[in-house]
Amino acid sequence: MQADDMWKTSTGKGVKVAVIDTGVNPNTPSLKGQVLVDEVQNSVSYHVTQDYDGHGTSMAEMIAGTGAGNGIKGLAFGAKIIPYRIGLNQLKDEQEKKKTPTSAEAIRAAADSDAKIINMSFGGAYIDPDAEVAIKYAASKGKLLFAAVGNSGLKKNEIEYPAFYPYVNGVSAADQSGKVAKFSENGEYVDFSAPGVDVPGWCDNTFKEYCNGRGTSAASAIASASAALVWSAHPDWTANQVLRVLIDTAGRKWPKGERSLYLGFGVMRPRKVLDNPSINPGPANVDPLAAENSVGDDDTSATPTPSASSGQPAKDAGSTSGPTSAAAKDSGSGSDTTTWVIIGAVAAVLVIGGAGFGVLRARRKA
Length: 366
Hints:
3-stranded mixed beta sheet; 6-stranded parallel beta sheet; single chain; alpha/beta; Rossmann fold
């Protein structure tokens, strides 16, 4: 992705990203001044800064961390985070879970916020009608939505929600060599691929050290950050236009407009947009994935912005243990050196594999 070069053009300044996850700790060195807690609506603000797992804070740092204090420097460190805390599987206290907003409530609140982008690094095997309605509402408000497609590619490879819903861009994980991670799920609902192997994240909710991690959670966060870079450089564009140029410039070996079950439209490359100041974003009010997003809609004339492949459920789309954030992590590295989100090689090499991340839980093991 050649981040250093991209940052000469855009750092994500002026763009707000809603992070719906396990909560976001605004007091880590890398996130000080980056988290807009005051912009979280009272109805969904319960313990929003108390990250019960460390996952949500990691996603926020990958997007907008400043790198201060030997922390993670996010791809769009000029952007700001609006945090939303939902009850994923890592939240063990049942009473606490009852007080915590649902994903549908958080998505709707994010839709009513000033965030342009909504990142959902979580997923689950069950359809939630309320969440689906909230997603359509967010799309109608001009939001661009990204979600992890899931980490069970070596197992059931079951459909993951919210990545499977219309208007949500499902993101698979790629490694530094440019190959899609074996754990990453695949299917017609994969829209993009982004780095998701050997990426740093907090080991747990004590926020004492970073671990080496992997998962489509990270890929979704980096995709959201990529969109923030583009939107910051072109603040007058709509979500339709940001999405269209990201599709058009994605790294792939197949014809434009065609989709891979593993990489979607290809590896996300915001640099290709930023390097071309005269790039044509297309019409502002036309959804580039309208044909897919309108499946099942009563009103196909609607023009909400984001995307998600429709596709048919996999044959083995069974149940899982519930909502989880999607990042697997190893007990590796410490926090004694500055940790950067590594995305260099992935953009230079076209990926050939497939990945996934998601389910309504913060997955720690692929």
